[in-house]
Write a structure and sequence with these properties.
The protein is α+β, with helices and mostly antiparallel strands.
C-alpha cells in the first residue's frame, strides 16, 4: 500500500536530516542511526511490518511503528479502526495494561514503570487510540510501547499481551 511506503520514506528522511545536521555540527561526536524492518505477521489474513529507527549518541532510543494490512480487503488497519464502534478498547486495554504493570513491579524489584504512584512527572496514563500493536503467533493482540514511553530505557520496549476474552466479538476484522 502506497500510504505505508510514503510514511516509512517520510520518517526515515526526517531522521536522516536531523542525524546529518547534528553530526555535522558537533566535532568528535559519536552518532549512530539505524533504520530496519521486520515482518512480524504474514498469514492469509494479515500482514504486519515493524519499522524501527534506532538512534545512539551516548544513550540510545528506539522508535517502532507497526503497519498492518488486512489482506482480505487490502487495506491498512490501525488500532482505532480494528474494533466495533461501541467497544471502548482504549479504557479496557489501558486498565488491563496498568494491572499488568503493577503485578510485574510487585513481582520483581528489577522491574520499573512510571506510574502515578512511582513518578510525579513521567507516568503511564493509558494507551493511545492508535497505540502500536501486532498479533502474535497465537493470534493474541499485543500492545507495544516505545523505549522511554512508560518506563526507563533499561526496560526496553514493553509489550503486553491482551487476552482475547477482553475483545472477543468486538473485532471488525476476523
Amino acid at each position: 500500500i502506497q500510504e505505508i511506503n510514503d510514511d516509512i520514506t517520510k520518517k526515515a528522511s526526517e531522521k536522516m536530516q536531523i542525524f546529518e545536521k547534528d553530526s555535522s555540527e558537533i566535532v568528535d561526536a559519536h552518532f549512530s542511526l539505524s533504520v530496519d524492518y521486520d515482518v512480524v505477521t504474514d498469514t492469509d489474513d494479515w500482514f504486519t511490518l515493524k519499522f524501527m529507527i534506532s538512534e545512539s549518541s551516548g544513550s540510545s532510543n528506539l522508535e517502532q511503528t507497526f503497519y498492518h494490512i488486512d489482506k482480505k480487503h487490502y487495506r491498512r488497519v490501525t488500532l482505532s479502526n480494528l474494533f466495533k464502534k461501541d467497544f471502548d478498547y482504549v479504557t479496557v486495554f489501558s486498565d488491563y495494561v496498568y494491572e499488568r504493570i503493577k503485578e510485574e513491579m510487585a513481582a520483581s524489584s528489577e522491574v520499573m514503570y512510571w506510574t502515578k504512584e512511582e513518578s510525579s512527572y513521567f507516568k503511564y496514563e493509558g494507551i493511545t487510540a492508535d497505540q502500536n500493536f501486532y498479533f502474535n503467533n497465537d493470534g493474541d493482540l499485543v500492545i507495544v510501547f516505545d523505549k522511554y514511553q512508560i518506563a526507563p530505557g533499561s526496560m526496553g520496549c514493553p509489550e503486553f499481551v491482551i487476552p482475547k476474552t477482553l475483545y472477543e466479538g468486538k473485532l471488525l476484522y476476523n
